[in-house]
Batch of 3 targets.
Target 1
Amino acid sequence: MKNLKYLFLRRVTQIGLLVLYFGANAYGWNILKGTFGSSLLFGIIPLADPYTTLQVLATGFVLGTDVLLGALIITLFYFVVGGRAFCSWVCPINMVTDLANWLRRKLKLDKEEVNYRFLKRRTRYWIMVLGLIVSAITGVAAFELLSPITIMQRGIIFGFGAGISVIIAIFLFDLFGVKNGWCGHLCPLGATYSLIGKTSLIRVKHDHEACTACMECKVVCPENQVLYMINKESISVTDGECTNCGRCIDVCNDDALGFGIRSFTNSKSTKEKK
Amino acid sequence: MANSDNNRRKFMATTLQSVGLTALGGLLWSGYSDEAKASPLVLRPPGALAEKDFLDACIKCGMCAEACVNRESNVDKETGKQRPGTLQMAKGGDHRLIGTPFFTPRDVPCYMCDDIPCVPVCPSGALDMPSLLNEKKELDINKATMGLAVVHKESCIAFWGLQCDACYRACPLLDEAISLQYQKNERTGKHAFLLPVVHSDVCTGCGLCEKACVTEKPAIFVLPREHSMGKAGSHYVKGWDIKDQQRVGNRKAEEIETKTKRSEKAPVDYLNKEIEY
């Protein structure tokens, strides 16, 4: 029986947050109001998405201090603590792409290795920068026009309308198109959080001694380039593209992976070993 | 040497490719954004910045819509249940910039709450609270300029001579934003027309008149102010208005020379010219 601890915790967090947001509109709850673009926690603490904030600033509009403060709080949280945890613990699209990914494995669609010539994992950083440029040119937050993340979240809170088609499109793209296509290649929000969370404290740690090289972790990881050290070195996963989803820990039967606090001395000693 | 040359060529090629594809993406994306921005006639919450700035500023959080639907006054007096909110968040298929708040008066008009719950919650400044403050620095919904009601007199049954003052009665600024103009009905010879007239300096664009209108498709409806208002231009001066007359200053009529394309010709010439199609 596979361990589903972190998967379960993530789903509880994701759905719990959506319930709170939904309740704020439907029943007037005052716990978490707004959407990921900008929210209000307990009626006082502002929260705002850093990339959305940057887009609005790029249009040339001087934002209210609530949004700027909110973006700062979120940035600091992921910078210091969470890493890219937004993507796997908060974002609702993660549930869609995880489902697509799971189906891909079940349908054995991954057996054929395809080389996506134009679609590299670094594409998202280009899109991230491009989004800001387009925002500046057209005078409207450009990614927010397309963002399946907020479309899905607003859909759940206020009703989907035709917006549901965007969610289905992402699902189909990830299932039949590119593996981890959206979250792993295109999403500029993920790119932003990758950059923000590069040096965060919570990290997955690998124990090379315990590893039996079954490679289950690499199969299940949505960003498996970050797991280059598996069965090679006993170090932390320090790549910012790791979403701290903990699926690798769940599937590991050898206790070779686990969450830990980044130790700055460790990374030095491995460098010395080299 | 050959290898490093190869690498260099490959690096150049991929860089060029990345830049080229980014430019392609940028063109498509800009084109789409620009089209998506060109919303049709859309009514925004009170205090909203001018549409262009509003689209810059709105962070699409939905807190205005949440405050609107959850206000204490939003309860059906008969059933005691919550009614739908005025402000809706544009979703796919609404053909308005996705995620931005708007309202459709014929469905749910703005009830012009005294405390304006939708505005102070705006975190980004897209809904500008200072624009709704009166001289006493209090929130004053009467200062809102969400739109301006327009009467289509051919479909308005009051202009037919039927007695209807539904919009006039529904207006929260009764006799100020809409007044009734009395006029003799020549057809019957003994009745009066009671004609609704909207005053743009008072009308907030709440849309209660549009909601109340009895015709199949409302004969009075709210449009964004930039679409429902004309502009006389600064070259027209109200000579009978002391304040307006001051714009002229001490200039004498014979000293003022207005040059237009037309004025280069003598009036006799351009007035007698055939109409250009």
Target 2
Amino acid sequence: MLRRDLLRTGAAIGGAAALPSFAIAQPAQNRVLKMVPQANLTSLDPVWTTANITRNHGHMIYDTLYGLDAQFRPQPQMAAGHVSEDGGRRIIITLRDGLKFHDGTPVLAKDAVASVSRWMKRNPFGQKLASLTDSLTALDDKRLQFNLKRPFPLLFAALGQVSNSPAFIMPERLASTDAFTQIREAVGSGPFRFKADEYNSGSMVVYTRNADYVPVSTGTPSLTAGPKIVNFDRVEWHIITDAATAAAAIQTGEIDWYEQPPPEIQQLLRRNRNVKIEAIDPLPLTGILRFNHLHAPFNNKKMRQAMLPAISQSDFMQAIVGTDPANFNAATGFFTPGTPMANDAAMAALTGPRSIDRAKALMQEAGYANESMRLIGPTDILAPSAMTQVGADLVRRMGFNADIVLTDWGTTVQRRTSREPVSAGGWSMLFTAFSSFDFANPAAHFPLRGNGAGAWFGWPSIPKLEELRDAWFEAPDVAAEQRLGREMQEVAMDELPYIPVGAYLSLTALRSNLSGRVPGLALYWGIKRD
Amino acid sequence: MFAYIVRRVLATIPVMAIVALFVFSLLYIAPGDPAAVIAGDQATPDDVERIRASLGLDRPYLVRFGAWVWDIARGDLGVSIFTNLPVSTMIQQRIEPTLSLMIVTLILAITVAVPMGVVAAWRQGTTIDRAVMAFAVLGFSVPVFVVGYMLAYIFALELDWLPVQGYTPFSRGFWPWLQNLILPAIALGSVYIALIARITRATMLEVLQQDYIRTAKAKGLGQRAILFVHALKNAAVPIITIIGIGLAGLIGGAVVTESVFAIPGLGRLTVDAILRRDYPVIQGVVLLFSFVYVLVNLAIDLAYTLFDPRIRY
């Protein structure tokens, strides 16, 4: 019996549950939200690691100067507002009243300066901001000032970045820690407090409502913008690694929310009227086929292009989310579908007729001489694993001299750091996936960069992409940004730093009596029990 | 006896040293990179390199091993690369669930398996004997996680008697503690019940052929006294041996059981640490397990003397 079959059986076990057995109806229990997060929380520092689970932890306990709404528009969050002087070269941000850290100290401008400075050392968007910043200083307790080399309209979008290490504000004493050293405390000013005394990594993470938190007074909750109104006194993350056990637990009411049930579990949970399945983010994640540009065969542009006719985005996406077309997008370019930057430039190469024979012919034209290539991928993480399996079949059918290396994630992420040729343990190709936020625009979109040795794993050197990216940061308006986005996609579709292999929705399972969830991420304000 | 115990305890030191060397070396050469895991999917290669350097993972083998041994010698198991928590704290957090699971499993296995084996031997060739042997085959053949899922289906979801997952500390009451352990203990114990029952039966069959058993019968002793006082005591040494081996094996079995029933024990801590290459935690837990194995073996050796007066140290 395959493990997946067994999981299905295990989940079917849960399907038989008719009544909640352990959801004891007590008022106190109604104020507790129990959820199974996507992964175990191992690190508490959202700058030190870019792990999504630590990002989600960050959104619980920290706040940001600006939030982003669902349309990716920055809105003041910790900031009361800002003034722009000297033609946009001097930006003064004023903190709103009532901000207080969980240790009781007030949030001051110097805390924001230290936090933003640390963040700018690690985050790609932050690094761009740092390159344009002459100085960042606290004018007084309430105001901080950016002195910019030139106007940077995306400043507030950068400060409101939602994913990949947002610019969370923490006390100066913590934020002054080196950006490559992990912070040991979790003290923020956000809507929840972290219960360090109940933290048991791998088992339980507990947050309590921050009674001192003052939500912004205007707007509506939208992604990380608007008032963060908390309706639970306590949120418990129960780390349950076994999908069938988690499925059974949500059906019995032992837990309220299962963040990332695998597809076969989703199908079974749909049959339970006490559980609802919905997209955690209305925007999809994007899967990519990443090439190693340093070595043969994919240091040859024509060899990369030869892959295009063989790529069927539907095949890759169905391997992840099943056959329901509502759950995936098979015409995905280099930007997240549904975002302003998404476009159809040069997309015919991926949406036209698919042909392995055509791909084989292009391989020969490209001069393929049976060089060995290595596809590396994990077996223990759903999306990359599924895409790797499809990709392995594809490269074999295309006639590559392929070495398929499937390992656990820990080994895959080590092997992909190797810049060696295949003969010395290197790699040629890998598959992975990125969140909608990561590919929403060029700022955080590092697989789309072409800065050679400084680029993300695969190290493509595509100067034109870098030029366009730099120009995008200077774009005066959305129309100009979109035009540059099209140009970037055209260049990318020709140079192929990677190939998009489709986009898919991440579905989540909640008890039916929960409502008000803010879409986008696993966020814990807004959500309430009816 | 005291001198023997002291000698055996002292003998654990070179054993632990060899284990330490082996574990450290194995992890050093094993693939995987905690810095890459920490950095996350969005990190650049430079980020990974800097994190590796900040964690000291770029230091030479001997330097790292020396530092680790020095810490161990001072009773410091180190700090988790990921959580920044002391390994000893993480083990402390996880030891109660695993210990509880092992105790309940062991009690269950012994109280069920030994009488089963004795009765099977006593009623050799009857339906009872065949039923016990059939159960034993089943216990060996069905994987622990399958038993776990089936138990959860019947007793948690269908009958609604017990919880599906989790662990409640003993400090919150005996019943809350026990109700989370019943299903995992049955799942984990099934293979040990089968093992102990088979060994008990086989050993008892041999003992029941001995002259002194015939003498006991001739003296008019009752069946219960013959079986449980005379025969079982003389059959105890192999049974204790197998219980000891089983106890050591429970640690491995707990890994699966803890995952299926979401029990936050040492088994899951070990698996999680291995998957993310949290070297200090892996090393600490393996050292602990090794120490437990050594102590269990010592306890078994000492237990022999209680049942067989001919054995003296």
Target 3
Amino acid sequence: MKKEEHIMGKIEPAIPFPNSRFVHQQTLKRGRAIRSDQIAGQEIQETVGEIRLDDPRLSCRDVSVFYGDKQALRGINLDIGRHEVFAMIGPSGCGKSTFLRCFNRMNDTISNCRVTGTIMMDGRDINHNETDPVSLRVRVGMVFQKPNPFPKSIWENVAFGPRIHHLAKTKEGLHEIVVKSLQQAGLWDEVKDRLHQAGLGLSGGQQQRLCIARTIAIHPEVILMDEPCSALDPIATGKIEELINTLRKDYTICIVTHSMQQASRISDRTAYFHLGNLVEVGETKKIFINPLHPLTEDYITGRLG
Amino acid sequence: MTGTERDKLCPLLFIMQITLIIFSILLALSVAAYFFGCRRAVAIAQGNIRNLHSLPEHYGFYAAIWCGLPALLVLGLWTVFETPIMTHLVVSELPRTFQELEPGRLNLVINDIKNMANGIIVSEETDPNLLAAADRYRSLQSMGQAALAVVVLTLALGCGSVALYLIRAKQRARNRVETIVKGLLFVCSCIAILATIGIVLSVVFESIRFFKLVPVSDFLFGLKWSPQTAIRVDQVGGSGAFGAVPLFVGTLLISLIAMVVSVPVGLMSAIYLSEYASRSFRAVAKPLLEILAGIPTVVYGFFAAIMVAPFIRDTGSRFGFDVASESALAAGLVMGIMIIPFVSSLSDDVINAVPQSLRDGSYALGATQSETIQRVVIPAALPGIVSGILLAVSRAVGETMIVVMAAGLSANLTLNPFETVTTVTVQIVTLLTGDQEFDSAKTLAAFALGLLLFTVTLILNVIALYIVRKYREEYE
Amino acid sequence: MNKQLKKRYAADLRFRIYGMSAVAMSLLFLLLLFVSIIGKGYTAFQQTALLLDVYIDSETIDPEGTRDRAVLSSADFGAVIKQAMQKIFPEVSDRRDKRALYRLVSSGAEFKLRDQVLAHPEQIGKTLPIWVPADGDVDMLMKGSIARDASETDRPLKDKQIAWIDHLISEGRLKKQWNTTFFSAGDSRDPELAGIGGALAGSLLTLFVTLLLSFPIGVAAAVYLERFAPRNRWTDLIEVNINNLAAVPSIVFGLLGLAVFINLFGLPRSAPIVGGLVLSLMTLPTIIIAGRASLKSVPPSIYEAALAIGASQMQAVMHHVLPMAMPGIMTGTIIGMARALGETAPLLMIGMVAFIVDIPGGIFDSSTVLPVQIFLWADSPERGFMERTAAAIMVLLLFLIVMNATAVILRKRFEGHR
């Protein structure tokens, strides 16, 4: 119940007015009108750009996601390579976050959510019955939109993952992992004197880097980032982007972002989503300088979204 | 009090009825004032209510309030102070010998007088002085009633007609009415404070009287409790033992058993219902648990006394234990069952208040559901859960009916759950039900126990509410 | 790694099972409670009656033939009943046996006969078939609560009496009937004559007083605190007070009632007025808290819209906000009333534990309430009272379930409209 609200809340904001049903219907109608204007005559049939890669880390074929009867993603085909930063952009509600959550099966936690199609990771289907979501999530880490450190100390936050996965035999080994992760996340110098204070006491940017440190502490292969900078100020954002830049040599990073500048700064390839469809995929430079699809162009030039 | 005794209370009843009649007349007068006020306002406006500052009914209300409120105040004050004033008057006319009695004795005499005035024949031989006083009391009473009726009705009529007369078109009737109504609302909201003050005063005063008879240290640290052996009225402060430690230990033992049952079961139920259960199961199970919470405690008491206690006794004897038929275990167990839904609904609230983002964060790190709950959700909800448990403890300590019906009366100082123990609440009930002389140490002890109970639960509640408040701030 | 994972999943499953068994345990307790109470109590809704052919002898009850009501109502109907019993068993002649025989009829039988004769004086001198209540022990035997095969010393009915009972059964003179006495009568020392009528009336009167006091005051306080109160220390104090009051043990309220309402104000003991006063103090916090929550949930746009068309603050609240909050307030009130209906401990303090036979007619009459009646009966040693206690609990629970269900339905209906 609560979990659905969490997702559905984004899509259908409740309007606190007694006859909200009426008002809401009107907005819906208007929304539909805009939509049909925009897409008039350009029914999206197939994704434009280079979908396929040789030796992909992740490879999606015909992936659709449904919330109850509502289809949020329509038949996505896409490959994501090794050691690349892959950005996903698009207007709100286009399904990019939903798509991201398919990679570590976070959609399993939403009761009425259904995923169809295949997603292969290193040649194995992650949605297969025998694939265990817990071990999958060890390999595919995730950083969320709002920093969500646990209400524990900084040290405990980072040690959480290694501890449950028994990555260290001794307390010293655990501490080593914590230190290394914090160093990798560029947070070590700021927190080394207060490792046992609450993680919630850090600033927003520090909290987000703590979450990244927490994620890399279990050595994932892929890191998913769901708008990691949307709750942060520009300076903190700069630091996170710097961090992503240093992480790219060790990890595959998929990042959902609202900021086109951010996508162009940090990503190798970019995908543009629109209303549950993958419109265009390509090298970031190409997408931003010379988009192939008119919808992409509209979005990038600011006419849409 | 039997049915036949009731008929003798007639004079007292008569007074109550007079008050009720006066009240009804007042009500009728106010309603009349309202209608006259409305009519007069319309008349002043010459039919066009646009000429008025306020709506006609505001003028009506204004007149009605003036008619009813002052008179009602007098009536209320009279009802409250009637008895003390009359008592004072009657006592001041008694012969010296009576007035020089110590307060406890004097109170008994006053009670006798009142009873005689109300037509109850007191069993002892009646002193002519007292008979005279009773007559005096009765005549004062009827005089008072007559005076009251006259004063109240005159006041109502007078104030009402003045208010009616003063109605003017430009009068800010609505504002005045609203100010008064606001004042009334404020007074209503203060009743809660009055109730608290009433509780504190009523237990504190009697407790002070008790502690004059029995030293505080004897009460708090004494190891022997046997009020039943104590005291006829004329030998106050006699040999009764009022050491309350056995009661504290009994209360704690039973509460502890209740907590051992209710905290794990309640908490795990809450966790299962909020984290694991499907929506349809939750929709069925939650209301059922709420039924468990809505069952009156007297029903649990019956269940404990008739089913659980004999069952535990028989089971115990089968395994060679000697279990008392009113064992602490039976009372504690059933009390625990009663508190399960309390713990579970409070925990459910706080577990649901833990943000989903924390769960997501944990799942994304590859934690299983139980790891997420044990290592993230519960620690995050801990303050709320702790305060819920504190409230549950306060509930267990103050719970009365289950222990009255299923726990015993004998104040054993023991921690053995198979033995009979007694609790603070049981003793309050036993001391205060049945025949009572209001001034014996025995009855006063009940108030001292009440004070203790109130203080302990108050502290628990305040801490719990404070933690809850703190906790809410963290997530809002 | 894989082994590790298996262990973790096993732990997960274990935890889940703990949770499931906790829920199952709670529900099991609920089931156990209901089954045991219904199992003990359902028999009380039937009552054994005895058919007697009573010859209403005018020699015995009205030797002078005046048919005066005063003479009739003090007449010895017990003797008439005894004659009727003697007629069925003419062979019983020993004095002790006779006494044992007469004990099979309830002491309520003569009152029933008296009322019948007073209503129809023309029946004097005739033989009248009449169903009278059988003694409690006979009732228990008929319901199987007294074992026939127990040894004679262990049961209240002797072998001879059982033989007579069997004879009565074979003649069709003993029959279980729907127990109207249980619903209409007040308390009694004899289980077969005791009923919850008095307690129900007492509960009703007490709740009436409670509702009359706590609803208006509670709503007024909620409105004030939610809409008019300035944010200051005093308001804070009131709020803390209300929250605390909601958690004060109920018995402490009883002490307050005893010390203030009875000893200070001189209100009568055992009366519904005092019970109502005490219970309304206990119900107030519930109503205020529910009322505030309900008022808070009314969208501010309503209030602002009313102000915008020129209503005063008071008018906006009274005419627009309060009506919209009413369903929520009612729900809270019903729940509070349900709790008050089940409350026992504070009423013990103010003397509602008295043994009261009469059915109270007003709020100043001595009375008891249903939960206290349950408490009193639960203490009685007679077997007959056990089933009556359980039956009274069933009635109480029925009331509570109906009230709570109403509250739930009310909430559901109006949630939909928002």
